[in-house]
Design goal:
CATH topology of the largest domain in chain B: Rna Polymerase Sigma Factor, Chain: A
Largest sheet of chain B: none
Shape of chain B: globular
Radius of gyration of chain B: 19 Å
Number of helices of chain B: 10
CATH class of the largest domain in chain B: Mainly Alpha
Strand content of chain B: under 5%
Oligomer: heterodimer
Number of strands of chain B: 0
Number of domains of chain B: 2
Distance between the termini of chain A: 91 Å
Shape of chain A: rod-shaped
Helix content of chain B: 55-70%
Number of strands of chain A: 2
Order of helices and strands of chain A: HHEE
Largest interface: A-B, 34 and 44 residues
Chain lengths: ~90, ~200
């Protein structure tokens, strides 16, 4: 065994014993508000996410509906094709 | 940002959080009861870790909050095949705390290589009459000892002995070589034992 290997093996403690072992179970007191804060943050972010999705999709949906109305108005036969479904409507 | 989807989900059989995780993932949007049970189960560990890795008592709960929120929104990415929930949460927590430490230091790395272990004598906590007069619990004593150890040794020690990561994992997290990591942990344990004994004697 080389001196380096021996040194390396020496660095590895299988059971460091007390007081090091106490670290494995070490905990810290928390305020009772933490879980409430976590809940509120999750709810806030979820709401923001929904609003963002809505804001992004809304203009496209409005434009699509406007296009459908416009096509319907310009159709001289009074019959129009719904561009979304390809079905004819009166 | 959306609620974790109810996709296919496999857990390792030994995971004690299996049932709560399943409920958390299958709960309708806005129903956080199952996830809150997990928060209540692990919050004390998460706060302890954030508190002593960063050594910022005033910031520990904020960091823990960010970790737990991140875990909630990442639940869909957790497959549970190779690790338990607590291991997965631990990785989020360690990554978040280390990023915070780097950010606070205004550096692009944790200053783990800068340690000059020979200088630790100058950093040792001096036992004052005030400290001696105080009756502190073992828990507080451990906290004080941890606070007195410089980041270069404290962080590897915590990752190894508090989070129970392997030497390889600690080395990976800190971007150190395996031998350097082992050396830090060994030295960290020595310093911890030494200071603990000293403080214990002083308090007694």
């Amino acid at each position: 065994m080389s001196p380096e290997d021996a040194e390396m093996r020496d660095d590895e403690e299988i059971d460091p014993g007390e007081p090091i072992a106490a670290l494995a179970k070490f905990e810290h007191d928390t305020s009772s508000r933490l879980v409430v804060r976590v809940r509120q943050t999750i709810q806030r972010r979820t709401t923001v996410g929904q609003l963002t999705t809505f804001s992004a999709e809304m203009p496209l949906a409005v434009l699509r509906e406007l296009w459908v109305i416009l096509v319907g108005q310009l159709d001289p036969t009074g019959m129009r094709k719904d561009p979304r479904h390809g079905a004819e409507t009166s | 940002m959306s609620h974790p989807p109810n996709g296919p989900f496999e857990f390792s059989g030994a995971d004690p959080d299996l049932e709560l995780l399943r409920e958390a993932r299958q709960a309708p949007e806005g129903d956080l009861r199952a996830f809150e049970q997990l928060v209540l189960r692990y919050q004390r560990r998460v706060v302890a870790n954030c508190r002593y890795i960063t050594r910022e008592p005033n910031n520990a709960e904020d960091l823990a909050q960010e970790v737990l929120v991140k875990a909630y929104f990442g639940l869909h990415g957790f497959e549970g095949k190779s690790s338990s929930f607590v291991d997965w949460l631990q990785r989020i927590k360690i990554g978040h705390c280390l990023r915070h430490v780097k950010k606070q230091a205004g550096r692009s790395y944790v200053g783990i290589e800068e340690a000059d272990v020979d200088e630790f004598d100058q950093l040792k906590v001096r036992v004052t009459a005030e400290t001696m007069a105080e009756q502190i619990s073992d828990h507080q004593l451990i906290g004080r000892v941890l606070d007195s150890i410089p980041s270069t040794l404290r962080i590897p020690l915590l990752l190894c002995d508090m989070d129970e990561l392997s030497y390889e994992e600690v080395a990976q997290f800190l971007g150190l070589s395996l031998s350097a990591t082992k050396m830090r942990i060994k030295r960290g344990r020595e310093v911890f034992r030494e200071r603990y004994q000293k403080m214990r004697t002083a308090v007694a």
